[in-house]
Amino acid sequence: MARIDAFLKLGLAQGCSDVHLAVGVPPMLRMNGDLLPIKFRQLSDTELDGYVREILTTQQIERLDEGHDLDFSYVAEEGGRFRVNVFRKVTGVGAVFRHIPGTVPTLSQLGMPKVLVDFCDYHQGMVLVTGSTGTGKSTTLAAMINHLNETRSLNIISLEDPIEFVHPSKKCQVIQRELNTHVRSFADGVRSAMREDPDVILVGELRDAETIMMAMTAAETGHLVLGTLHTTGAVKTIDRIIDALPGELREQTKAFLAMSLKAVVTQVLVKTVDGKGRRAVLEILVNNRAIAKMITADQTHQIPSQLQTGADQGMQLMDAALLRAIQKKEIDPDDAIRFANDKRKFQRFVTDTDVVPLVDVGGNEMLGS
User: Fold this and answer.
1) pLDDT tens digits, residue range 209-256?
2) Residue 304 phi/psi, 5° resolution?
3) Shortest CA distance to 215 belongs to which of 234, 180, 189?
4) Distance between CA 349 and CA 351 in Å, rounded?
5) Contact (CB, 8 A) for 70 and 60
6) Distances (CA, A) of 349 to 257, 278, 330
7) What is the model's pLDDT at position 368?
8) I need a labelling partner for 96 at 20 to 30 A (CA). Which of 32, 33, 56, 273 fits?
9) Model-level pTM?
């Protein structure tokens, strides 16, 4: 058994989401959003380097020694699957292990709104799940793939970096391909997938212009494309895609988004009231004629008003979703206010006054808050 497995086993026993290993500090566990050290000595450079190299292949060791970061999946000897990132910093090597549950969760188990099930029924177009790192985007997409796998007869091709949840084929054929193992890039993976008779293509991350363009092409040519972006709102997602592509493609990109972008889901993870877990809270955009017109007319700043009035279509603003979850006592208001755009609406729910920012008469956070 690799020595690093002992830390992973402890993390699983504690119910953590991540295990952090870095030089100069003891191993740390991410527990319900907080990073907590375990009772262990500080790790030295030589010690941690030895731990990490035990689980690497010869090729991975070569890449690490060349200065590259590593992303891969790892299955501990005593069970437990992890997404791993290994990197170098000033004091030496470091590693983060994200636990991947063995069973793919359902949308119902995640407490997702019914409209996400409706998104799975689309036959073509693009659905994006967005948010910061560690907000559960991969888990939400895995639940959507699982729903498709159980309810429709499709060919699903997923492109991941690395493969996280493993999907056994049920009603669907699910083909999972990993970056740097099976394909050189997301763009190459999408290009290949389009020649493999897919119904659904999952793109782990739309991280560059080439990948975005290939995903757009797939969505326009009769495929359902599911993907992620590191953006923190529906409007920012649309603007990010438009800005990511060359200026001469701006009008073409806006036309694609107006016609083929089906939905944008932005999520955050907020602590539950009892502090024993976290719950996903979503902002949801469902593209309709009004939003499509705003995109083509460069009026994306007006989209929030559509989210506010589009509840009958499943749309919601992040602030409204947070307030509703607070009123239902599903989330901790002291944590929720961190994710709110208009924090004034949340001040009456907060119990810890230290987390309430100073707000001027215009509703803006003041410097020093």
Assistant:
1) 999 999 999 999 999 999 999 999 999 999 999 999 999 999 999 999
2) -55, -35
3) 189
4) 7
5) yes
6) 38, 18, 13
7) 42
8) 273
9) 0.89
